[in-house]
Every structure is written in C-alpha cells, then in structure tokens.
Write the structure tokens for this entry.
Amino acid sequence: MLTEKDFEYIYRHYDSTPVRFDCGTLCAPKNDGVPFCCDSGWLIPVMYEREFAYLRERTDLWKRFRPKTNHEKKIVEETDKSSIFGTCLGHERCDRRFRSVSCRVFPFEPYLDLEGNLLGLVYNYRLGNKCPLVDRPKLISRKFVSDQLKMWKYIFEREPSERDVYRDESIQVRRYLSRKKKPIYIFTPRGYYKGKHRLR
C-alpha cells in the first residue's frame, strides 16, 4: 500500500516534464490565459488518499473538490472511495514541488498488455483531447518517459491493484482508438512506436 513516505519519494525523484518548454504557452491563449490542464472547470485531478494527506500536511496548495452539478456529483460517486478529487490554487500560484501524480503524468497514462506488463506510456485521450501535446509524439522528452515509467513501476510494486486498473484501462484505450481508426502511440525511453489495436 502506498504511504506518505512513498509520495515524498515520488515527488522528489520523478519531476521531469513532457517537453523542454512551457507547453502551457500553446493552449493558454485559447483558454483565457489558463492552460487546459490547470483549468478546474475542465479537468479535476484525482489523487490517492495518502497522497492528498501528504500534500495537506505540507502545503495549502490543494483542497478537496466539492461537486456542484449533478454531473460532477455522479463522477465523484462513481470514483473509487480510496481516491480523492482535488483542486489547487491555480497555475499562477502553482508550487511545482507539490504537483500531484495526475499533474505530473498528464496528458499520459501507463499502458499495459493483457498480462499486466508495463509496455510504455500512451496519451490519455479521454482527458487530453484539448491538450496540444496529444498526437505530437516528436515533442515528447525521452527523459520524461523514462522517469514516468520508473514512477509507475514503483507505484505498481506498492499498490498492485493499480496495475489491474491500468491493465483494464489499456483495453479500453485499444477499443477506443480502434473505433476511431487512430494509431496507438506507445512511448518508451527509446522513442515511440505504433502499437496494435488487438493483442491476440
């Protein structure tokens, strides 16, 4: 099980960014000056329970998200009770030392095969459809990919149920992109390649 000590380790060691420049400059002008990934009206980070506790003890950057609309309430109700939706003070007051795991990995997620082996990272298409980095694989830093894969291996070792979550999510990714007739870009420390929609 992940502990607050684990998040201290994760935050200290896995802090690289997807690209070598401020990618917010690509999307913020189209969203009233706010990067899409920092806009709580569009994206609400989900945190591990112990991660939220770790952050609350060290910073006033985060608070628990309070749903207002029926849609928001439904999302919160359907989410695993061990996870917490959080909102921050906004991009202008961001303390990057205390970015959540969700913030650090966006717009990607771990990609697994049917046996639960970690193959690489893939775009989170359901959340990242407005992110300018999606479908621009040549921009992505290999160091970021390497760091993220190390982070997910660390998380899976300590929270095995997360491996099952993302194995099932990877199945959904393959189905979604197959229907859309879009390629699956799989990112590894050596670069990216196009994966198959069917593994069997």
Remarks:
- The two ends are 32 Å apart (CA to CA).
- Residues 160-180 form the longest helix (21 residues).
- The first strand starts at residue 46 and ends at 48.
- The CA atoms of residues 17 and 144 lie 6 Å apart.
